[in-house]
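Extended Data, panel c. Modelled sequence:
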Amino acid sequence: MSYEFSGDEDMRSVTSKKSRFTYQSNQSSSGGGSESRSETASDRQVYFSTTFGKREEANVLRARALVALILVLAATGVATATHLLVKQQERKDFENQFAGYATQIVTVSSSRAHQLFDGLDSFASSIGAQAAAEHRLLNTSWPFFTVPEWAVQAQKLAKLTGGGNARVGIGLAPLVQEDERDEWNRYVAQQNPIWYQESIESEGNTEFTAQELLHSTVPFVFFFDPENGFLPTPVSGPGESNPIYQQYPIGLPAGSPIMITNMDGLRTSQQTVELLRITKVTRRPTLGFTQIPDDSATTLPGSQILQPIFDGADTEADDRKLVAEIIIRLPWLGYFEKALAEDEDGIVVVLESSCPKLPDDAYLREDNVTQSDRFIITYQIDGPNVVLLGEADLHDPKYDALVVSEALVDFDIDQSQLPEGSCVPVLTLHVYPSAELEESFETDNSTIYTVVVVVIFVFTSLVFLLYDFSVGRRQRTVMDRVAKQDRIVSDVFPTAIRDRLYENQAKNMMNGDDNEADDGLLGLDETFYGKSNTIGSAPLADLFPSVTVVFADLVGFTAWSSAREPHQVFILLETIFGAFDKLAYRHSVFKIETVGDCYVAAAGLPEPTEDHAVVACRFARDCLKKMKDATVKLEVSLGPDTSDLDVRTGIHR
């Protein structure tokens, strides 16, 4: 059925549902065409909403923050691990280097100890054999024997101690009985000029002559008597004496005007008494600890070693008679010299005795012997040089776990066989690193490698940021184009149609037809031009059985437009049809098209409405009223006959 309205006919007031769309004509022409549609700010629902964009932007920001946090944590972790690994490698290199140095020191020291005691035993056996041969030839006996070429043989023995700058003293001390003292004094007076001169020549000594040494020699067995102003006093009374006879090197002791020839060790040093007592029981060498003068008139901690000499050449006989001792005063400072090569510095060695240290003070008597702490000396080895740190264990405790220990001297004597209160020490060598050695392995590599790692991560982060900026810029460009397209689609199509277009597009993309979404767009431009890239795709066509179509035609438009400029025609159509669009939105009427000066709309679609006919009538009535108002307003700008224009409406149900 067709209805036509003209004028301002009243209509019943009815209530109709409000559509979600506002239809606004943006462009009209007499030739007809399609007009864009937009929504109000309160009702429009576009595919890419502002809320969705902000939510996605927040998600992207969170993802960026997470990646940045991961990069920072990774950089921190890798840099820390690199620093620790380099430090660990430096520590490992330090420990390995120290182990090599310690092994070398232990090997050299043990080798010197074995050589020293083997050489000492051979020297004692040689002296015993030479004395036995001379005694048979001259019908003499101990203690009346002078070792031929004493300086030459003693010098060979001294070299086995490792040499060094500190002096090694070697002496021959025969046992002289009480009834032999006077004859011994005469024997020594005869022999001293001979072996003095021989030793001076062998040693190449030019500091003094044999005659000068004779003037400094006490012509009898003596000791320094504290009750007589420490003057050399003849030994008298019962008991044997143990005077030092031949000596190496030859010369006056530091700070003393007297040669120690004929000095009785049994009345001068309590330690000598103890060592001789042990030697008589064990018939083996032993050692004690003492202070030894060096070239600078000071003293150095060292050891006094006693090697027994037995009568005859048979050194294995159990009934051998002890007739003399070889006494060695060994400064440990020189013993450790040249144990390492140049630039091998910072090794600390601690020499520890298993026995208490007996005082080496002179004039002690057997009834007031005291014992002190164990003998411990600490040295630092710097290449071939050795520095005395002190007579205590002075190593750094933080290196306890790295210690290398070795028994340097062990006579393997059963302590139960010794006299009560006696002890044969076991000398143990402990080798430690020093802070100086560790610092030599501390380099800037850990810092350099850490900085390199950080720089790499910073560079990686910058590359990531640059890439993220590039991708973000392209993404924003794509999103802007998609948003613009979405707004256009939302203006052109109703919500249901628009959503179906997007659904079809998504299905096509899921099926692999990516050509419809090039550059991130939704491929709807083909739809605008009636084209489709999907062969056989179903058209978007729906059946609405109950609708009412409204036609609105401008009366007098042809004559009016023939006398007007094109832009005036455009203004008229834009104003009138724009007003009709607003009325269409208000009445939930769907604008179909404009054909020239004809406006076509329908009620009841795309959302079905039961009172679509009433809605269409109301819309037509309001169009008549709006036409009157619009032409009156346009009369000023478009000419006086503009108000003569009218609208003719028709309704088809």
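The radius of gyration is 61 Å. This feature is highlighted in the accompanying rendering.
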